[in-house]
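User: Here's a chain of 85 residues. Predict its fold as tokens.
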Amino acid sequence: MPKSRIRKKADFTPPPAARTATAIRLTNRSWVAPVMLALFLIGLTWIVIFYVTDGDLPVKSFGNWNIVVGFGFIAAGFGVSTQWK
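Assistant: Prediction complete.
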């Protein structure tokens, strides 16, 4: 059986001259971690106080919606956490 021709691979050619890199300005996000943790703790505290006081606190007129408010603070904390870099 005849031997097939061997194809020569092209030599490496470097990419064209590098462009000047543009500086990426990262904003200062030092506020994210404290706000995130504060929202988590407020939400957790809200729910714990609701259960410990048998629904009398933090806001009695909310009733069981106090749980939703507490989880809302926690969800807001997760929302803020998406800004953390």
